[in-house]
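Hi team,

Below is the intake form for DUF479 domain-containing protein from Candidatus Halomonas stercoripullorum. Please confirm the fields before the structure is written into the shared record.

FORM ID: S-0412
PROTEIN: DUF479 domain-containing protein
ORGANISM: Candidatus Halomonas stercoripullorum
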Amino acid sequence: MNFLAHAWLARGGSDDFLYGNLIADGVKGSDLSAWPSDVAAGIRHHRRVDAFVDSHPAVHKALRRAPSRGRRYAGIALDLVWDHFVAKELGLDSTQSQLVLRSYHVLGRHSAPARLSRMVPALIAQDWLHRYADYNFTCRAIDGIGQRLSGPNRLAELLPWLRHDYPRLEQDFRQLWPDVTQALGVPPRLPPFQP
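The structure came back. Fields below:
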């Protein structure tokens, strides 16, 4: 899961809890004592979600289908693909989400950890979270992340597989998402949009 899924799963908490969930990938180590308690709780929540997702049979099934050369990087790509399906599930291709706007507001109020400091302003300015509903945009985001990694762009090499395997990845998501939301005790769908 990436930013959007983590935001959805943390939406019932305080803004600090949401912030912790959004920036957790940029925080190293288990000592979270430097963070306010709600932020630290959000970071821990994010890590529990990641552990659950990483151990889920649907994710293992998808990873086994990935090309062997790129399998080591496929989990990164799948995190963004899951966000694409969350965006579709939440109807972000046709409506502006209050959750996304809240996430941008929370991220904009705080400085991001160093590992995310260059990405977060672009994420907000270019409205990535709404745009994940567009699979072509999601694939471009995967390619962009691959460009920031050292060595050849192994994520870009996965794009043909991700496009070809789209129907099966969607089936995997349909198994994964209800299990994640049930494990965390949150409803899997958004209520109707309220302007």
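SUMMARY LINE: Confidence is low (pLDDT under 50) at residues 190-195.

Thanks, M.
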